[in-house]
């Protein structure tokens, strides 16, 4: 099978196009970042299975919604709890199978799950006819659950953040009264199994987000309390204090927040005065928020997953006009653009999303057509090309499935009749291909051909 990839250099940057036989692929651009360049490939055709797609996998043993998902150190995914469930199960991506664990110590939904440095998983709070203060630990070595110290206050629809010192910060939650949150915050110490109080947040809130920043502080944004909040605040674990951050440009709750490789926080969609398709970025260096390009559909209760290439996959959620969504789309921070990434096999909101070690994303459970679902599926992103610039040359690398040598050819257009050898030899070794293109060679199209 002949496989080749085409690159175009123009004044605006570098474009690439990939083909497998005569299958046409979409073009793309790379943006120049500090010290390196990332090239995001759309349907490169380097191998058939690499095309961006959704793939159904076996269903979970039980239908779940408002549960938790945690990637374990061995690469498996732990799915725990759900609406009045005391069960948990593990997905093994190597065999595409589910295995049940021992029973949880209490049934809970809207809990948080945090992977601890010792490899255990802390599940805290949630709701079971009342707001829970209880917490429990899952041990992957034994596949069993044990109770640990209870929190000082019950927390539901709260956040839990693993701090650099190994402690877990739990903040906020629902008070039990409509549209009212709590400001309480506390710390879990895995060594002692105990909780200690820390300073309360400046504003009560629930259905908010919490993101650990590269400087060790925690950004808490949005949520509900007597309405939907614009406000954001920062927790400093060194001093155990909260300080006000600049407010978001949009009030939002049931949104997502994703730490990007550049250190900024990407906040997307959610509910406020209506439901949003807007998104914005928080820059810890300046403390400012800036709006990004809007996504294609309004949604809340969706998932946001940072892919290995630095893009963000937004999947599913609830749309006031369409109900649970099967739609997904990808945000590219390098170009501030959105692109469709296909429809999930099942519409869903209140589901989980887990980035697996092989770069695929496991989507499981949630609410589908007004009922909890046990269905699960995998998203396979486009293959990724990376590039580094040095000494007037651009070196590209990307995943490859077979060893061999490829020639770099150039042409002034894509008619297919004027390809000439550019004199560069590309060698594939250890599953990675590389090509070196002189940046000063000028505008034109480039392809790799064996």
What number of domains? 2
The order of strands across the largest sheet is 1-2-3-4-37-38-41-40-39-42
Spatial extent as radius of gyration: 23 Å
Instruction: Determine the CATH topology of the largest domain.
Output: Neuraminidase
Q: Name the CATH class of the largest domain.
A: Mainly Beta
Number of helical segments? 0
- Percentage of helical residues? under 10%
- Mean pLDDT figure: 82
How would you classify the helix and strand content by structural class?
mainly beta
Given the C-alpha coordinates, what overall shape results? globular
> CATH homologous superfamily of the largest domain, by name?
Kelch-type beta propeller
Low-confidence stretches: 1-51, 383-387, 399-404, 424-431
Name the beta content range.
Answer: over 45%
Write the layout of secondary structure elements.
Layout: E1 3-10, E2 13-20, E3 28-32, E4 37-40, E5 53-57, E6 68-71, E7 77-80, E8 88-92, E9 97-100, E10 112-115, E11 121-124, E12 135-139, E13 144-148, E14 159-162, E15 168-171, E16 185-189, E17 194-198, E18 209-212, E19 218-221, E20 232-236, E21 241-245, E22 256-259, E23 265-272, E24 274-283, E25 288-291, E26 303-306, E27 312-315, E28 318-319, E29 323-324, E30 327-332, E31 337-343, E32 352-355, E33 361-364, E34 367-368, E35 371-372, E36 376-380, E37 384-390, E38 393-399, E39 404-411, E40 420-429, E41 432-438, E42 444-449
Please characterize this protein's 3D structure.
Strands 1-2-3-4-37-38-41-40-39-42 form a ten-stranded antiparallel β-barrel. Strands 5-36-33-32 form a four-stranded antiparallel beta sheet, with no helix packed on it. Strands 6-7-8-9 form a four-stranded antiparallel beta sheet, with no helix packed on it. It has 450 residues and is mainly beta. It folds into two domains: 3-51 and 384-449, no CATH class; 57-301, 6 Propeller (Neuraminidase). Strand 18 (209-212) and strand 19 form a beta hairpin. 0% of the residues lie in helices and 48% in strands. The chain contains no helices and 42 strands.
């Amino acid at each position: 099978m002949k496989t080749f990839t085409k690159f175009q250099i123009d004044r605006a940057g570098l474009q690439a196009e990939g083909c497998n036989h005569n299958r046409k692929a979409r073009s793309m651009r790379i943006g120049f970042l500090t010290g390196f360049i990332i090239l995001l490939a759309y349907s490169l055709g380097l191998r058939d299975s690499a095309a961006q797609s959704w793939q159904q996998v076996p269903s979970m043993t039980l239908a779940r919604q408002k549960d938790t998902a945690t990637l374990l150190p061995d690469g498996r995914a732990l799915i725990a709890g759900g609406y009045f469930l005391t069960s948990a199960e593990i997905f093994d991506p190597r065999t595409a199978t589910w295995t049940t664990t021992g029973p949880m110590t209490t049934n809970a939904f809207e809990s948080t799950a945090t992977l601890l440095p010792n490899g255990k998983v802390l599940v805290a709070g949630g709701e079971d006819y009342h707001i829970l203060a209880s917490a429990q630990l899952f041990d992957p070595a034994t596949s069993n659950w044990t109770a640990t110290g209870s929190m000082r206050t019950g927390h539901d629809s709260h956040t839990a953040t693993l701090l650099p010192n190994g402690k877990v910060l739990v903040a906020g939650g629902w008070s039990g009264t409509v549209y009212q949150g709590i400001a309480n915050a506390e710390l879990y110490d895995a060594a002692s199994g105990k909780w200690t109080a820390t300073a309360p947040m400046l504003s009560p809130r629930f259905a908010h987000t919490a993101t650990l920043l590269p400087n060790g502080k925690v950004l808490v944004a949005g949520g509900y309390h007597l309405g939907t909040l614009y406000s954001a605040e920062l927790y400093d674990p060194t001093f155990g204090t909260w300080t006000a951050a600049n407010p978001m440009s949009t009030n939002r709750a049931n949104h997502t927040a994703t730490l990007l490789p550049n250190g900024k926080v990407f906040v997307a969609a959610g509910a406020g005065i209506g439901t949003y398709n807007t998104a914005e970025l928080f820059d810890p260096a300046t403390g400012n928020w800036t709006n990004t390009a809007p996504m294609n559909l309004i949604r809340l209760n969706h998932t946001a997953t940072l892919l290995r290439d630095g893009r963000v996959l937004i999947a599913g959620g609830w749309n006031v006009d369409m109900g649970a969504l099967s739609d997904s789309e990808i945000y590219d921070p390098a170009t501030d653009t959105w692109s469709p990434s296909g429809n999930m096999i099942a519409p869903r909101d209140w589901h989980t999303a887990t980035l697996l070690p092989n770069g695929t994303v496991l989507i499981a459970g949630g609410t589908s057509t007004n009922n909890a679902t046990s269905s699960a599926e995998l998203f396979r992103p486009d293959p990724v090309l990376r590039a580094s610039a040095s000494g007037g040359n651009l070196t590209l690398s990307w995943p490859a499935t077979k060893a061999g040598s490829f020639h770099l050819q150039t042409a002034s257009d894509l008619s297919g009749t004027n390809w000439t050898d550019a004199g560069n030899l590309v060698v594939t070794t250890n599953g990675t291909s590389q090509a070196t293109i002189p940046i000063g060679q000028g505008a034109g199209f480039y392809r790799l051909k064996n």
